[in-house]
Design goal:
Layout (H helix, E strand, L loop, with lengths): L10 E2 L2 E2 L1 H4 L15 E2 L2 H13 L2 H8 L35 E4 L5 E4 L11 H6 L6 E4 L11 E4 L2 E2 L11 E3 L1 E3 L3 E3 L5 H9 L5 H11 L15 H19 L17 E4 L8 E4 L4 E4 L2 E4 L3 H4 L2 E2 L2 E2 H7 L20 H33 L5 H6 L19 E3 L5 E3 L1
Parallel strand pairs: 4-8
Antiparallel strand pairs: 1-2, 3-5, 4-5, 6-7, 6-9, 10-11, 12-15, 13-14, 14-15, 16-17, 18-19
Length: 409
């Protein structure tokens, strides 16, 4: 058996690499201080208020300075955000409105959108984040893990990997307004010549959702030889996309059929303590609280080898090591979290139901002929020009620099 191709060579086992199909990618955000994100927006406001009221050494300790950010750091505002740019040491104003982000796979949380508080905010992602954008998140590879290689969101993703092996964030569009697809130059014409004129940037994204799989060489996206297989995969990918958008763009939020929908059978207590699952009864226990029916597929759903529901719960229960501003949390379990849990169970259950179709597609692609990197080279798509791997310049957008200065990018 031939050894896998090296990363960046254009082809992994049985297909080109995602890195060549969607060449512009961004590393995950690095906040530098965990207290700037939380599952609850109210506690972020409380953390801000406590910080700006503190003085001297107490304020310095709560801020948690790093090499990249101190209270004296001079930084620009986040693109598209009205945040202050003066030194944080002089900050005494109101809390900026928290924004919804995707914290790792399938976990919608909140972030304080203040560049002075974030070590590496990835401004290039903020510049292209709008209501037309879709972000493909590549998960860290874990050997023999059956979980998804990628997921998609309309929220700004932080790219966090639950296994500590971060992947990449790939915007579908390089410019705001859904302009300039982040696809290798010439890829759309080449795919249309093979699969038909209906191929669009979003149908390519749908195919990637359905067919992408991890490999030691990088995330691989096999391409089929025939248009019928492509159409089947795109249809599956569109269903995955619809579910993962979770009601964005006017779509229906994930919802299981009647009789299968999870309900709260016993109220979640103020401090649920621990999470457990009864597979025979299909009951999720949150302390004395009970949610059912919860399909086994939802409970067993993993990303990068980590069970999603367990990780979601752990992030919402106070750990013994919480200190400083991170210890400012809801005192009791908010009702909103229960509603979010019910939706997450539904989402994971529906995604698990689609897994057999993804496995069938993978088997068919592995067994049949494909259109690999050689076909893309022949069409002039590969190798990808280096300019396609860099963010597009934004020449008509003014952004506020440190201390109120303006920069033209």
């Amino acid at each position: 058996m031939a050894a896998p191709a090296a990363a960046g060579s254009g082809e992994g086992p049985r297909g080109p690499l995602l890195d060549d199909l969607m060449p512009w990618s961004v590393r995950p955000l690095r906040t530098g201080r965990p207290w700037v994100t939380a599952p609850d927006a109210a506690c972020l406001r409380a953390r801000w208020d406590r910080l700006v009221r503190a003085a001297g050494e107490e304020r310095e300790r709560l801020f948690a300075p790093t090499r990249a950010r101190t209270q004296q750091s001079a930084v620009a505002a986040l693109p598209g955000r009205p945040g202050a740019t003066g030194r944080f040491a002089r900050e005494s104003g109101p809390c900026p409105e928290p924004v919804r982000i995707l914290h790792g796979p399938f976990d919608e949380q909140w972030l304080l959108p203040d560049h002075r508080l974030i070590d590496v905010a990835r401004p290039e992602l903020w510049r292209v984040a709008d209501d037309r954008q879709l972000f493909l998140v590549e998960h860290g590879r874990v050997p023999n893990d059956p979980g998804p290689a990628v997921s998609v969101t309309t929220l700004l993703p932080d790219g966090h990997s639950p296994a500590g092996r971060p992947g990449r964030v790939r915007p579908l569009y390089r410019r705001p307004g859904g302009l300039e697809p982040n696809l290798a130059p010439g890829l759309l014409p080449a795919l249309r010549a093979r699969y038909g004129d209906a191929v669009t940037a979003e149908s390519v994204l749908a195919w990637i959702l359905a067919a992408a799989r991890p490999s030691p060489a990088g995330c691989v996206v096999p391409l089929p030889a025939d248009a019928a297989r492509w159409a089947d995969g795109v249809e599956l990918g569109r269903e995955l996309l619809r579910l993962q958008l979770r009601g964005a763009r006017g779509a229906e939020r994930p919802r299981l059929p009647g009789g299968q929908r999870p309900y709260v059978r016993a109220a979640v207590p103020p401090d649920p303590g621990q999470l457990s699952y009864d597979a025979d009864e299909r009951v999720l226990h949150l302390g004395s609280g009970r949610v059912s029916p919860v399909p086994t597929g939802a409970w067993e759903f993993r990303v990068s080898g980590v069970r999603v529901l367990e990780l979601w719960f752990e992030r919402r229960t106070a750990g013994p090591g919480a200190a400083g501003l991170e210890a400012v949390r809801p005192r009791t379990w908010p009702q909103e979290w229960t509603s979010e849990l019910l939706e997450l169970v539904s989402l994971l259950a529906l995604l698990a139901e689609l897994r057999p179709r993804q496995e069938e597609l993978a088997d068919a692609l592995a067994a049949g002929p494909g259109a690999g990197a050689d076909a893309l080279r022949a069409a002039g798509v590969l190798p990808v020009p280096e300019a396609a791997r860099r963010p597009a310049s934004v020449l008509d957008h003014r952004e506020e620099g440190p201390d109120g200065q303006f920069a033209l990018l």
